[in-house]
Every structure is written in C-alpha cells, then in structure tokens.
Design a protein that fits this description.
By secondary structure, the chain is an alpha/beta fold. Helices cover about 30% and strands about 25% of the residues. The N and C termini lie far apart (about 40 Å).
C-alpha cells in the first residue's frame, strides 16, 4: 500500500483520527510515513478498536506514541496491558443514551 503525506509535518506532532482499527497495519504504516517526513511523534484516536490477529503486538512494537480507543468493543487483556494503548470508557454515556431513549427523553441533552 502506498502512503502519501500531504503537507509539511516536519517538526510537528501528528494525530490520526478514524472510526475503526482492525489489524493496525494501515495505522502503523501511516505513522511511519509521517515520521519519515519529519513528524516529531504520531498518536491515534480511534473510536472502535477491533484489534484482531496480531494487531496489539504490531501496535505495541510500532513507533506510534499512543493509540487511544474506546471500550465500545470490550478490550482484551493484551490491549489493557499494551504500553501504548489507552482505553477510554464510553459505557456511562451509552448507558445514559439507552436510558433516555427508553424513557423517550432527549439524547442530545447528554452532550450539553
């Protein structure tokens, strides 16, 4: 897969944002491409961490400074033990959204 970096990232911390990460291959390749162009670091913020197969090992051994995911998919012990993967819980927010929906109350009020 060919990676192209558009713009000057030299001397900058770069953030990668996406909805889902599965194998982590594209994510790690993107981090390497940015670092090769002079980025000082790369962190990723992904909503759903599938992290199948060797993804945790791949990300742990990569130069990605941090991967932040939510617990929308229950993290494995390997994910929780990984040095550069952080899990943020969305369980309270989802619980409130389900409650509000069941009670026919506003869900948008959760974001005020």
């Amino acid at each position: 897969e060919v990676m192209n970096v558009i713009g000057d990232v030299s001397g900058r911390m770069c953030l990668l944002l996406d909805d889902i990460v599965d194998s982590g291959g594209t994510l790690c390749n993107a981090a390497e491409a940015l670092l090769a162009k002079g980025a000082t670091g790369v962190a990723a913020y992904i909503t759903h961490g599938v992290l199948s197969g060797g993804a945790v090992a791949r990300i742990s051994s990569s130069r990605l400074s941090e991967l932040v995911i939510t617990d929308s998919i229950e993290p494995t012990e390997a994910v929780l033990a990984a040095p550069n993967i952080r899990v943020i819980s969305v369980a309270p927010l989802l619980g409130k959204a389900i409650r509000n929906t069941a009670l026919e109350q506003s869900v948008s009020s959760l974001f005020d």
